Amino acid sequence: MSTSRIAVSRASLETRSYFRERDSVIFSFLFPVIMLGIFAVVFGNEDVGETSGVPIDFAQYFLPGMVASGIMLVSFQTLAISLAIEREDGTLKRLRGTPMPPVSYFLGKVGMILVVGLSQIALLLAVAVLAFGVELPSEPSKWLTFAWCYVLGTAGGAILGIAYSSVPRSAKSASAVVVGPLLVLQFISGVFFVFADLPSWLQNVASVFPLKWLAQGMRSVFLPDRFETLEVSASWQHGPTALILSLWLVAGLVICVRTFRWQRRDDG
Asked: Transmembrane ranges (predicted)?
């Protein structure tokens, strides 16, 4: 079999395995949906942007951040934790000893993330529209922006998750080591709060990481054009968004090549 066919088969296997893991489905797949529901109910009577004369329902404003957060949860968090577990229980070591090309294994992981991510976003958008009356964009240009933001964000998150999986020293510590930093990034990257309302130094810190740019890209898709003026730079900054997400993707690939391990540290 060719490398690509093995990758497709591996992606199918990984996808089925993912949906059998209830913890992963709940915390990575359903978390954005649950958070959207909670925030929309709690702040349902509030509007965002009233002081600027461009008010919008809170659920509508909150949706792009949840889309971006969901992408990072499904890609970065899922792979960082699952690979740490597979390394601990010897799965990676056994796979390395098979004839399967390593690139097919990783492409299978990325393929699984792309499928799961699209499924999660479809569910999130359906809940937003049916339960909270959120209006989705109708312009093709906005969905084109969504496409490249999704591909760059998901691929970058997956590659960074693979790279970060070598950080936890054991499978037991993986959840804390992965979830903690990602949760902090969600708070400072415009996922749970209006990004422009954060202190400037926090904005500068968040701008180093991809989640801030992914959330901003998604806001340009799901928010009306008049909200562009409420961004810190008064612009959606599509160019810098694509550049920084691409740079993180390349950086993740370099780190993976240099640091990824197929076996535990104590295996030598």
From this structure: 25-43, 63-85, 106-131, 143-164, 176-196, 242-260
